[in-house]
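Discussion board: Methods & Data

I've been asked by a reviewer to show the raw model output for two of the constructs in my manuscript, not just the figures. I'm not sure how much to include, so I'm pasting the format here to get opinions. Each protein appears as its amino acid sequence followed by a line of discrete structure tokens. Is this the kind of thing reviewers expect to see in a supplement, or should I convert it first? Here is construct A:
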Amino acid sequence: MLLEIEREVDYTRSMIGRSRLDERVMQAMKEVPRHAFVPSAAQDQAYYNGPLPIGHGQTISQPYIVALMTDLLEPRADHRILEVGTGSGYQAAVLSRLVAQVFTLEVIASLSQQARQRFDTLNYTNIRCRVGDGNAGWPEEAPFDGIIVTAAAPTIPQSLLEQLKPGARLVIPIGQPYYHQDLVLVEKADDGAISANSILGVAFVPLVGQTR
């Protein structure tokens, strides 16, 4: 799997602006057992470099995309990170190896509960889970040192921009469900100014919730 990620990075380096990912990110990808986050029916594909269904119309993302989004976030050991879209819990688990605290939101209660059980089993103690609308973020714990969104939104939710610390990054797929989407890196300057750059084309399930 790690070799496949490295090949993808090399293939897309002109788009992503880097020829390799941070060694800490690759080590986290090595440490987290992806098979523990994949349904039993797909265990033989657990380390396949592609997305896999996890039920409820959701997927566990392609390992390359998980690694890339994590790298773009530039996580540090003292960071508090918000993840929108817990899904299987795999992305949160990878982040948990790199930062002080992960706060992860999932709108589907059963997926959130399953992820929480996986975190407990694997002793990932620095992840907090909540069932809720990801569009609204987690205002009680804001501001965050970074935000990662693992579902596609038509536009960047204003609430997430407000919950981002100055100097921090937000990584989010933007576009219409099941059509063209761009993985977007958003940076919030120290004065609060927002800049956004498209990195490469992606395909994510839609971000769902009560607010838009």
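Construct B, same format:
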Amino acid sequence: MRITFLGTGGSQGIPVLACGCEVCSSEDLHDKRLRTSAWIEVQGLHIIIDTGPDFRQQALRHKIPRVDYVLITHAHRDHVAGLDELRSYYFKQNKKPIPVYADEIAWNSIRKQFYFIFENANYPGVLKIDDRKIEPYKPFSLGKVEVLPFVVYHYMLPVMGFRIGKVAYITDVSRIPAESMKYLKDLKLLVISALQQEPHIAHFTLEQAVDIARQVRAEQTRIVHIGHRMGLHREVNQQLPENIKLAYDGEMIVL
């Protein structure tokens, strides 16, 4: 399995528009962050987690050849705004509807945001997706790959976390229920979000994310959904344990 971090930034990305802070002004490419998304290659499949507003740029940058499945964590714009960019893959892949997995709350929002996909199904130029509803703790299969969905909370909003093999992926989280913690055992890689170092009502701080990483004892942990208030990539990573690091755009981990 190979996971590529297509983006590791928070909802505004880094640099933030009209901001001149030291992070947004940094010339270090590790401090340039598109919105959080991931590409997983496993058993010949190409799986995308979240299609944010930068998905087109990310797909071009990494030359993603095809999209077999899409997993949606939740329907906030920084995680789904690029959904219609799947249209190019739909036409390339012989007009076979692309399976997209999300929970009912997310689907209710996606259908409103992308009404033109669902209301103009007969128009020849529109994207066709195979909309599949998922529920926490009910496993499903992508080909021969089993996905275990579990719930975390982004303030009051349920967000889907996903476990695929020895990898768990969590974004936009401020609380993890005890039942979901059971899904984080025996991991080779934990991907978890932390927006900044100061407290936030809807996101883990860096300290909280590191605490979870220490509890689950994954072999490696990568932090995503990082805001510009986190600090400089190099300086923050120097303060973290060896196996817990801020991810960066384009980072690839092979397991």
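Answer (T.O., handling editor elsewhere):
This is acceptable in a supplement if you add a one-line summary per construct. For B, something like: DSSP finds eight helices and 14 strands in the chain.
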